[in-house]
Design goal:
Elements: E1 2-4, E2 9-16, E3 19-24, H1 35-43, E4 49-56, H2 66-72, E5 86-95, E6 98-99, H3 105-115, E7 123-125, H4 133-142, E8 147-151, E9 165-169, E10 172-183, E11 191-200, E12 203-210, H5 216-227, E13 230-231, E14 244-246, E15 251-256, E16 258-259, E17 265-266, E18 269-273
Parallel strand pairs: 5-7
Antiparallel strand pairs: 1-8, 2-3, 2-4, 4-5, 5-6, 8-9, 10-11, 10-14, 10-15, 11-12, 13-14, 15-18, 16-17
């Protein structure tokens, strides 16, 4: 089965005789940050349950908007309450005194579909959208969604990355100028993160960094190239970041999911350097 990949915060909604708790993947209690979701859980008829799902804020086209969710919570590290957030439930792990984690997903889904409505309320069902993966991911990308998730319905609930779920993301790929890097003693090639810039008119604008996608070989080779073109100051304003700055002559191919509200790359991954024969096009920001 396939579902929409929601772009929000993964949460577990716990309900028992003492009330409702909303717990993050890291174990933090965020009940007070999602009061509408907590109230909706209290109204559900089951005495005890644990729902697994994603808290999201939808944009005006019905797509999950991570930036909108962050704004609703007061930004990164904020303390506001996200009253407009919805919870899309995609699993039920515990119900009325019964641990369901050993039950195959198709059985848990059948129970979940009896608990949660598809389009009403603050707690909604994350629907099974079909079985044709290539067609679905193409449609998801055309609609501007984050992607889809394929799930093996015969498997029980197992923690960790085990192949039971396959995430297929919609990504963008562009060229960005490397303006520096943050050194690291533990990262591959000693590169903790590349600092990237795009063009805007005749200037360079810092658009964030990338710290994933390297191999030991590519990172080592890139570090040698960067160390050969160092300069004392960055070619553009990178804020208060400390790093080694380089001449803006190398263009990196970067895959990324989206842009943050403050104009930075989100979910970026390094895919290599653009070759000179590749016409090394650099992403241009609108004026």
């Amino acid at each position: 089965m396939f579902e929409v990949k929601w772009d929000g915060y993964r949460l577990a909604v716990h309900k028992d005789e003492a009330g409702v708790r909303i717990i993050t993947r890291g174990g933090h209690d965020w009940t007070d940050r999602f009061p509408a979701i907590a109230d909706a859980a209290m109204q559900m008829p089951r005495t005890t349950m644990i729902l697994d799902g994603e808290a999201v804020v939808l944009d005006d086209r019905g797509r999950s908007d991570f930036g909108g969710l962050q704004r609703a919570l007061g930004g990164r590290g904020g303390k506001r309450r996200a009253g407009e957030a919805l919870f899309y439930a995609f699993d039920v792990l515990y119900l009325n005194g019964h641990d369901l984690t050993r039950m195959p997903l198709h059985g848990r889904r059948a129970l979940l579909e009896q608990l949660v409505e598809v389009e009403e309320g603050k707690i909604r069902l994350s629907e099974d959208i079909g079985s044709d993966g290539p067609l679905l991911v193409s449609a998801a990308c055309e609609l501007g969604l984050e992607g889809i998730i394929g799930k093996n319905v015969e498997m029980p609930c197992r923690a960790g990355r085990n192949g039971d779920w396959v995430k297929i993301k919609c990504v963008q790929s562009e060229g960005f100028i490397i303006v520096g890097y943050e050194p690291s003693r533990v990262a591959l090639g000693g590169i903790g993160r590349l600092l990237l810039a795009a063009r805007k008119s005749d200037q360079l604008v810092y658009v964030g960094g990338v710290g994933t996608g390297f191999t030991a070989r590519s990172a080592t080779a890139l570090r040698r190239q960067l160390d050969a073109i160092t300069m004392p100051k960055p070619a553009t304003d990178v804020g208060k970041r400390n790093g080694a700055f380089v001449k803006p002559v190398l263009v990196a191919k970067i895959e990324f999911r989206a842009w943050t509200d403050d104009g930075k790359l989100r979910h970026a991954s390094f895919k290599g350097l653009r070759e000179e024969a590749d016409a090394a096009s650099v992403y241009r920001l609108s004026d």
